[in-house]
Amino acid sequence: MVGIVGLAVLLIQTAVVGLPWLDFDFLTNYMSRKPELAGVKAAVMGTLITILFTALFTVPIGVGAAIYLEEYAPKNRFTQIIEVNISNLAGVPSVVYGLLGLGVFVQLMSLGKVVLAGALTLTLLVLPIVILASREAIRAVPNEYRLGAFALGADQWQVIKSAVLPSALPGILTGTILALSRAVGEAAPILVISGLVYVTFVPGPFDRFTVLPLQIFTWVGRPQDEFRSLAAAGILVLLIILLSMNAVAVLLRNKYQIRSED
After folding, report:
1. Which of 28, 59, 73, 179 has the fewest CB within 10 Å, making it most exposed?
2. Average pLDDT by consecutive 10-residue portion of the chain (262 residues)?
3. Which CATH number fits domain 23-29+38-261: 3.50.30.20, 3.40.1390.10, 1.10.238.10, 1.10.3720.10?
4. Which intervals hold domain ABC transmembrane type-1 (predicted)?
């Protein structure tokens, strides 16, 4: 109860401080050393583009791994080791993934500190969560669905495609979107990968970039009170993005649950 009250007070204070700065210019201006001219366009676009690429990498790999582990992989000691390691990776601190991405994608693969390296690093961060959520959704599908499809002459892939995945889709979508929501709010991996905050352009896949959490972190550290007010406005924008993603997850889950029941 105390934690909920504290969170509510914090949100109210953030809204009171940030709302006067949250206008059209704030959303469409780039970073500036003058608080009255500073905006979050580069940070918002960097966040959205990075998450888009993260989703493109995460969804096929995560869902494919879950399908393999649940439907194809033999139940032996090797697969048990893989399952335990996936569960352990879900609890690794995000800054560790940032250091791993810096070593592998930025230096070893020579991608540089660009959007693609950031997206691949966030993919490593959320991939265990997507795999675990997708496995739980696939495991929850009644075995009668599989047996019925096999009885009609379907092979294993046809059973998975026609009977298992449609029923598991609500859980897979919900877990994936919630995992991506976590990636949106992560600052530590991007701080290690990019560390860039003064961006005055919309980044492409191979451009330097910044994201909203990193921009907010930078503004909070500035001595001027105006920048801290800008940070509060940035927090409100980040909350809107996160709540929108969570709302999409709920809508998709309800939509596909109704469809699978029909």
Report:
1. 28
2. 74 85 89 87 92 94 93 86 87 89 91 92 93 92 87 87 88 88 87 81 89 89 86 92 85 70 56
3. 1.10.3720.10
4. 44-249
